[in-house]
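$ ./design --mode recover --in tokens.txt
reading tokens...
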């Protein structure tokens, strides 16, 4: 027998979801692990981009170091060691810092515009996923790629610069033992008085005659002459003090005391603390480049113009705003993220993007527009948060 329901009877209630089933999180703004993995694979499968990133972050420093290793092995007298402190500082501040930012910005601009350029944005929207979650998922995915590549390139530089470092310090053309204390340096200078007085920086007696490279340890002073090596001749004097061997030793110790601050900043290879601080600084610069590039790429909706603007920021605007004193625009200059990261540069590295600075870095900050560490940190945080907000806002308001 068939039972007929009244027309006005209420419809049966929908079947509830089975207890214990996974909740529907498509509307959540927090990206899931699957979303992050998908963004990671999306970027990794762009072979041309990945090849360019590997070549720049790993290939360039590795090729440079391999060439130096081979050249030194073939002709050690013509080509110096492949590693060492000077090679390390040049590669970190001159190559990894600049190119790390550029490749990170390129990856970020690509991640921010790839859905539009590939025509996939509409398909992502109709899935019901939160647009904010789709945007935020790209940040850890991109940082995992660029962070690992920069770390590999930096590790290669550290390994070669430590294990292929020179065995003696070349200070003003003189091979000096490394790592001497002030007392040890002065003692070494007393034992090599002729070399110190003729070759190392510092005042030389007017009656000291030098002829040839690196002086002669057993030479005798003579009338005034060009610095280089002590030549034989009648004993001279400084005022009423004759230039006896004891007097030469005293003068050499005085010169060594003046030269020690410069000597103490020269190392055979970078210290562990310098390598750790430099690595974190390079990773910070790459993270800034990626996140700012991601926001700019999402805001503009295309990669080419965004990449060009990021290169102009790093290569053109940052060096100008960092070192030039522009009247009435100092606060605007301090808002540039490149100046902020330059103020966080570890002591012991030369000023990034050129401009000089001594090896240990105490005069590097004086070449930059003055800015406190607190202000520099606030500027970096403001750039990271600001460009993330702009990029996410543009993605959430863009028409599908």
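writing sequence...
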């Amino acid at each position: 027998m068939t039972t007929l329901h009244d027309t006005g009877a209420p419809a049966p209630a929908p079947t509830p979801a089975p207890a214990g089933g996974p909740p529907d999180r498509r509307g959540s703004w927090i990206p899931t692990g699957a979303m992050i993995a998908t963004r990671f694979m999306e970027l990794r499968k762009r072979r041309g981009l990945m090849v360019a990133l590997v070549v720049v972050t790993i290939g360039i420093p590795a090729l440079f170091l391999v060439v130096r290793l081979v050249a030194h092995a073939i002709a050690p007298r013509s080509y110096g060691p492949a590693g060492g402190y000077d090679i390390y500082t040049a590669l970190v501040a001159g190559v990894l810092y600049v190119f790390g930012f550029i490749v990170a910005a390129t990856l970020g601009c690509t991640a921010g515009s790839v859905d539009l350029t590939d025509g996939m944005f509409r398909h992502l929207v109709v899935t019901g996923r939160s647009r904010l979650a789709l945007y935020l998922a790209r940040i850890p995915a991109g940082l995992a790629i660029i962070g690992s590549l920069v770390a590999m390139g930096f590790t290669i530089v550290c390994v070669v610069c430590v294990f292929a470092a020179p065995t003696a310090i070349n200070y003003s053309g003189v091979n000096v033992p490394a790592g001497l204390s002030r007392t040890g340096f002065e003692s070494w200078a007393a034992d090599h008085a002729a070399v110190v007085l003729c070759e190392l920086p510092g005042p030389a007696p007017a009656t000291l005659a030098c002829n040839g490279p690196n002086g002669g340890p057993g030479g005798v002073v003579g009338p005034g002459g060009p610095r280089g090596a002590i030549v034989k001749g009648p004993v001279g004097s400084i005022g009423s003090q004759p230039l006896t061997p004891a007097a030469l030793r005293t003068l050499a110790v005085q010169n060594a005391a003046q030269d020690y601050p410069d000597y103490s900043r020269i190392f055979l290879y970078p210290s562990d603390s310098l390598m750790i601080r430099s690595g974190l600084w390079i990773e910070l610069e790459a993270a800034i480049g990626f996140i700012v590039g991601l926001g700019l790429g999402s805001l503009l909706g295309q990669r080419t113009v965004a990449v060009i603007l990021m290169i102009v920021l790093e290569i053109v605007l940052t060096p100008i705003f960092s070192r030039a004193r522009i009247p009435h625009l100092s606060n605007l200059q301090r808002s540039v993220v490149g100046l902020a990261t330059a103020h966080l540069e570890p002591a012991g590295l030369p000023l990034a993007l050129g401009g000089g600075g001594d090896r240990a870095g105490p005069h590097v900050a004086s070449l930059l527009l003055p800015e406190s560490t607190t202000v520099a940190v606030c500027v970096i945080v403001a750039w990271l948060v600001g460009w993330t907000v702009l990029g996410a806002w543009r993605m959430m308001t863009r028409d599908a």
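exit 0
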